[in-house]
Amino acid sequence: MKKKSIIKLVALCMSSVLLLxxxxxxxxxxxxxxxKEAAGQEVTLNLAYQYGLAxxxxxxxxxxxLIEKAYEEATGGKVTVNWNQMSSxxxxxxxxxxxxxxxxxxxxxxxxxxxxxxxxxxIFTNLxxxxxxxxxxxxxxKSFDDLIGSSNQIALVNIGSIQHIILGLALEKxxxxxxxxxxxxxxxxxxxxxxxxxxxxxxxHLTSSPYIFQExxxxxxxxxxxxxxxxxxxxxxxxxxxxxxxxxENPQLYQALCDAVKEAVDFINDSPAEAxxxxxxxxxxxxxxxxxxxxxxxxxxxxxxxxxxxSFMGRTEFIDSTPESYEDLVFxxxxxx
Length: 337
Description:
The chain is of the alpha/beta class and 337 residues long. The chain has 2 domains: 42-130 and 235-328, Periplasmic binding protein-like II (D-Maltodextrin-Binding Protein, domain 2, 3-Layer(aba) Sandwich); 132-227, Periplasmic binding protein-like II (D-Maltodextrin-Binding Protein, domain 2). It has helices spanning 2-32, 56-64, 66-75, 89-98, 108-117, 162-173, 190-199, 211-216, 244-249, 251-270, 272-283, 287-295, 306-315; strands spanning 42-49, 78-85, 103-107, 121-129, 132-136, 154-156, 185-187, 204-208, 222-224, 238-243, 298-299. Strand 6, helix 6 and strand 7 (185-187) form a beta-alpha-beta unit. It is globular, with a radius of gyration of 25 Å. 46% of the residues are buried.
């Protein structure tokens, strides 16, 4: 009996050793496959976005579940994607720095600010370029000279938003201080800014598609043309940012996100009419208007004039430190300038 007990004890110990060895190999294989991503594992991706046609590819991604499909195809696993609509890039920066978001889509200005401030992300893709315009309901306002030193309020998404940076660019081009209208700014989401302009609660609204197109159709509004030429639809407007943690610890999920954006951008460029049928439901436009707005926009994963904008922001103190190179702002999969 004693001999049998010893044999059983040895067998039990060997089983324990094999079990522990098996657990160790599984952890190592999981790490080699992409950090926290084991085959078949369920993960969650928390993303944020804002308002307007500039974000149209995201409607395609959501409707067609492109991230989910790309991740499952690559790993066999499942990903739950939580989409959060927010009013500004500053809100997205707060979410990423606090760990409640893995990434988001925002104006290139706040994205540059976030990278240089060390929020913990870089740009992983371009998304779109759009027309911008500065509209007013006051017939006496014809140029920047009528605004500088006045009490007229200018609604835009946020202080430090891409609209704020574009306004600074336009002011400098007109020979003015890029910050000459900072005291006139009031932060409002695009829809709220348009409503405030139409009701007379603010004098001006600096906005993008589709709101700029809708405001241009209002007979009691007119455009201050100084703003329109400095940053066009061929230039980066909305970019995607991803946390360094997502990029480094979950490379397969990061790649699925990149692949999904590329697929959505290709779809909207190749089949704009089909895309409009999907995105109009997210944007609240008619299908006909949505298609017209899409065709006036540019969707691309390649950045344009990104480093030029960042250099301007540093030189004019929109940011505290100027990046030394394009590569300081983006992950290594990103192309453009």
